[in-house]
Amino acid sequence: MYDWIVYLSGEIHTDWREQIIEGAEEAELSMLFTGPITDHADSDECGEKLLGEEINPFWRDHKAAKINAIRTRKMIEEADLVVVRFGDKYKQWNAAFDAGYASALGKSTIILHAPELTHALKEVDAAAQAVAETPEQVVEILKYITRER
Amino acid sequence: MYDWIVYLSGEIHTDWREQIIEGAEEAELSMLFTGPITDHADSDECGEKLLGEEINPFWRDHKAAKINAIRTRKMIEEADLVVVRFGDKYKQWNAAFDAGYASALGKSTIILHAPELTHALKEVDAAAQAVAETPEQVVEILKYITRER
Amino acid sequence: MYDWIVYLSGEIHTDWREQIIEGAEEAELSMLFTGPITDHADSDECGEKLLGEEINPFWRDHKAAKINAIRTRKMIEEADLVVVRFGDKYKQWNAAFDAGYASALGKSTIILHAPELTHALKEVDAAAQAVAETPEQVVEILKYITRER
Amino acid sequence: MYDWIVYLSGEIHTDWREQIIEGAEEAELSMLFTGPITDHADSDECGEKLLGEEINPFWRDHKAAKINAIRTRKMIEEADLVVVRFGDKYKQWNAAFDAGYASALGKSTIILHAPELTHALKEVDAAAQAVAETPEQVVEILKYITRER
Amino acid sequence: MYDWIVYLSGEIHTDWREQIIEGAEEAELSMLFTGPITDHADSDECGEKLLGEEINPFWRDHKAAKINAIRTRKMIEEADLVVVRFGDKYKQWNAAFDAGYASALGKSTIILHAPELTHALKEVDAAAQAVAETPEQVVEILKYITRER
Amino acid sequence: MYDWIVYLSGEIHTDWREQIIEGAEEAELSMLFTGPITDHADSDECGEKLLGEEINPFWRDHKAAKINAIRTRKMIEEADLVVVRFGDKYKQWNAAFDAGYASALGKSTIILHAPELTHALKEVDAAAQAVAETPEQVVEILKYITRER
Amino acid sequence: MYDWIVYLSGEIHTDWREQIIEGAEEAELSMLFTGPITDHADSDECGEKLLGEEINPFWRDHKAAKINAIRTRKMIEEADLVVVRFGDKYKQWNAAFDAGYASALGKSTIILHAPELTHALKEVDAAAQAVAETPEQVVEILKYITRER
Amino acid sequence: MYDWIVYLSGEIHTDWREQIIEGAEEAELSMLFTGPITDHADSDECGEKLLGEEINPFWRDHKAAKINAIRTRKMIEEADLVVVRFGDKYKQWNAAFDAGYASALGKSTIILHAPELTHALKEVDAAAQAVAETPEQVVEILKYITRER
User: Fold this and answer.
1) Which of A48, C137, D117, F75 could be bridged to C132 by S-S, CB 3.0 to 4.6 A?
2) Which residues of H touch D (CB under 8 A)?
3) pLDDT one-digit tens code per residue, F64-118
């Protein structure tokens, strides 16, 4: 048995993480899935809730983002593979930041997005080992790369 | 004399790079500014122009983005400081990717953007040493950090 | 399950370590807490006790500090997170040294101190992911960052 | 000819830096001396001056310290040798932080302080290559280590 | 007990991997053997099967090779020892690539090939810790290096 | 001005190196080209010539290959870009070894080969930033990536 | 529980390793001891026994030393602490080599030798965290550094 | 032009360094030679002369060796190639330490010694790129590896 750690970064409004995790469980892959706190409100408010209120919205965000980074940095650094999902809404700069962060550390990445985003994501895709369109494809890749010889 | 290399990443539709470079020149800073190819069309088409046509738009973008990365990776890796500018248009995922890439390498970053983008950029800002709103502010920081003791 | 190693550096005259460890245990966090030898006399005298007396006080301290560093370096290098506590007495340069050491290794740090020390600790705080005033806040951060998604 | 870069960290209220630099110049050493901004007021206020006022004193210090770190990190990372001076006043936690930072990067350090501080600085001294009491001693070390074979 | 991870790279048309693994099992070595997907057809076709057809044979190969690299890179990076087998057929550039990749990471390598290939493999052999002619020799080396003191 | 170091690895029987170097000179690129000793006989015999004869052909090759590696390793490690040329003859395992070595160090590579070799080189190409068919294409890439913004 | 890996390098003609291991076992330390093959004849002959005879004594030694290095490098790289013992006979250059190797990797070392060797070992001792004269002292250090806080 | 830095470590009682340097100068090699302070008395006494007397001979040596290491570490870390000479007298553990230090940093080494020392130096030689018997051979290697292609 040989373990993999897979970090699931990016979009938090659909159930793509669950699809991948369930697919991996069904296939009985020896794989640990990690990821950021995906509760949007908690993630935004953790700075103030944990360390006190801020009047200035910049510092409110700043405190929250730094606390979240304690978790995300460790998990990305320990991952063997980082899957980054881009959805059709929002700026999602944190997803692209994670992809860049993972690439600079020499991690393999799989980018998951609809074909319409291809041109806008070309630099992110260019640094990846695979570009998928559906969570099922990611599951198939995970099954393939962890196969017995 | 003590040299700095500053990489200017991100938005390519306004003259923010020129403003910073001119400000630094006026102040006679000993500083080398680097950055990506900022001609949008050339940057998009370099894959096909240099290595042959592609039918599939994904690979067309892929070839171009990889050639561009030969330059951008080297320059980010050699930079002492990476300034990343986010404008009000487009996805600009390459800018966030560069910020993540630079952060993982332990580079200092300065993020340059309008206050309206603060919430969307909170993870990127949280990893930065400074967040500025104008090129003039960046120039003032450059002047300050390179002062004689 | 996903394990964290948290190094508790700094002040040794109050029970802040116990408060954090107990708080984490109550919350059933999967976390290993490490730290220096906190018996002040033993820590000071270990050089002479283990390797023979010294006439010169400089070398007495030197031998002790180097033996202690075998432990503290390994533990800081293996930690995912370093919490550094500054109290209101003594110079506590070893605490600031640990914070600098951890930062240069790219570790996340949480600095724990009273608000009165803010100005004196600004460089140390600036390199941290969070600055807390109480052990309870640290426990809450630990609970938050290790939550299920 | 073979160049050295020597970073002078710590106490800013006496002329120890000038003594070392002048001593090195008199001896015609091929050496570049770097260091932080030593104007106390400028160093404290740079955050607000360069990037706008802050109501909260924590963030005022935070912005300043992070900008200063752009300079100090680069310079420590590029130094061959870091000299850290501890005086008899103030907390000087930034000096100890720099010593820890430099040590974790594998830099040689020379710690410069009065014998009275030996016990309080034992962990810092233990990680150093030399501990001196006067700037003249540092100059003599610099002359010795850069001698022709 | 002290574990080793041994990556078996290269030629996939004979049963040399099985011979080494069986030899190690008979000797009850505490060793985990890893390696690439050795089903030739699957390895070639995985790009198209997992992520969709490609008209251009270059991109067909490209997609497959990148997916395979997710596995092989991780496994080589985690290996304590990389055994690379060169057979008498085909170009086997991927085997030489793996040897170079492992060498640059500071991994010990054992190269396994017939004496006729000595001159052609001289650069690869020169970076290795041992050069063997038979799988039995590799097994004997594995037994020797994992012996009790 | 901003310098690049480009290592030219691989095939030594055609004048592809000269074509690239001349093309770069005509374009007045600020570029230093490095490479192995390309005199085949000297490269093979350097071990014996410099350090004494060997009866066993394995050690003859071994001594030569290790001396050559003093040069090639340094040059690859200092290169910004490694161009690896595969011709239509010989095993050329050293070229593939260099490509793997450069990739593991995070260097950008350009692989230069005829389309017929695509399948055999798929793992090498998959780790590259560009795959070219002619020296002219390489020159054009070099001109493009070193352009003013 | 928190594990340590301790590599025992150097002199192989007395039972110092056994003394340390037994002392650690009696104290129930959670510690894994590693070390080279200490059977002198096997260590010298492994090259020829495993990979065939050599006429030239240089290559006989060379083959053996390289096989032994597969084991020793891995074990030193994975050790938290390296204890190096110098006896009163032989050149023991491999012990000093191991100490230098461990130091460059940032490992803590303890050097174990009689006081008569102090001057000859001054460079080796200077890079160590502790210098002991007896195995008992090493055991006491191991007990001290692994104590509960 | 392409520069090399060559560190000359080890034996200080014959003129082997001068022979190599003169040979390189005659051949007009673009090469910087570095090395330790070779004045034996100065090297032994620098600790006391620069930083004050010591009663205990251990600390006298310790202070000296640590000051010398400021120089030798920097120079070894910046070298492209480390030549280590073993003579027929003394323990020369510092030479073996330097060889191990350089090897762990991935430096190429050339070991220079008489054939009688082959067995005692087998671990040191095994980590080297070349083993020479005379300074002339080293000069010839330097000339060869720096030749134009």
Assistant:
1) C137
2) 17, 32, 34-38, 42, 46, 50-51, 63, 66-71, 73-74
3) 999 999 999 999 999 999 999 999 999 999 999 999 999 999 999 999 999 999 9
| Contact residues on chain H for G131, CB-CB shorter than 8 A | 58
Q: How far apart are CA D72 and CA H137, in angstroms?
A: 45
Q: Which residues does chain B have within 8 Å of residue D37's beta carbon, measured at their own beta carbons? A: 144, 147, 149
pLDDT tens, residue by residue, E52-61:
999 999 999 9
Whether the per-residue pLDDT at C27 is higher than 60: the answer is yes
| Distances from the Cα of F107 to the Cα of A50, E101, F38, F76, G39, angstroms | 43, 12, 22, 9, 43
Cβ contacts of C54 on chain H, cutoff 8 Å: 56
Residues from F in contact with H at Cβ < 8 Å: 17, 32, 34-38, 42, 46, 49-51, 63, 66-71, 73-74
Q: Are B109 and D67 in contact (CB under 8 A)?
A: no
Residue B92, Ramachandran bin (φ over 0: left; ψ between -120 and 50: alpha; else beta):
left
Interchain proximity D118–C86, CB inside 8 Å: no
Question: Do the strands H4-10 and H81-85 form a parallel or antiparallel pair, or are they unpaired?
Answer: parallel
Contact H94 G94 (CB under 8 A): no
Taking only the tens place, the pLDDT of each residue in A52-85 is 999 999 999 999 999 999 999 999 999 999 999 9
Q: Is the dihedral of CA H48, H51, H55, H57 positive or negative?
A: negative
- Please tell me the predicted confidence (pLDDT) of residue A41: 95
Whether H147 and F34 have beta carbons less than 8 Å apart is answered as: no
**Across the interface, do F36 and H149 touch by the CB < 8 Å criterion?**
yes
Strands laid side by side in the D130-132 sheet: D31-34, D4-10, D81-85, D108-112, D130-132
Q: Are C84 and C111 in contact (CB under 8 A)?
A: yes
**Sheet strand arrangement including F130-132:** F31-34, F4-10, F81-85, F108-112, F130-132
Question: Do C and F touch, counting CB pairs below 8 Å (3 needed)?
Answer: no
Chain C residue whose CA is closest to G134: C51
Q: Is the pTM of this model over 0.95?
A: yes
- Pairwise CB contact (< 8 Å): A50 & C131: no
Q: CATH number of the domain at A4-36+77-146, out of 3.30.70.1530, 3.20.20.10, 3.40.640.10, 3.40.50.450?
A: 3.40.50.450
CA proximity to C127, closest of C94, C144, C103, C102 = C103
- The distance of A81 to chain E (nearest Cα, Å) reads 8
Instruction: Give SS3 for H142.
Output: helix
- DSSP string for F28-49: T--EEEE-----HHHHHHHHHH
Q: Which residues of chain D have pLDDT under 50?
A: 1
Distance from CA of D38 to the nearest CA of C (A): 14
- Backbone dihedral angles phi then psi of residue B88, each to the nearest 5 degrees: -95, 0
CA–CA distance from A53 to each of A61, A64, C144, E85 (Å)? 11, 11, 17, 62
Query: Is residue F24 predicted with pLDDT exceeding 90?
Result: yes
Question: Sorting pLDDT into bands at 50, 70 and 90, what band is A2?
Answer: low
Over residues E55-81, the mean pLDDT reads: 97
Give me the pLDDT at residue A61, please.
Answer: 98
pLDDT tens over chain B, length 149 residues: 469 999 999 999 999 999 999 999 999 999 999 999 999 999 999 999 999 999 999 999 999 999 999 999 999 999 999 999 999 999 999 999 999 999 999 999 999 999 999 999 999 999 999 999 999 999 999 999 999 87
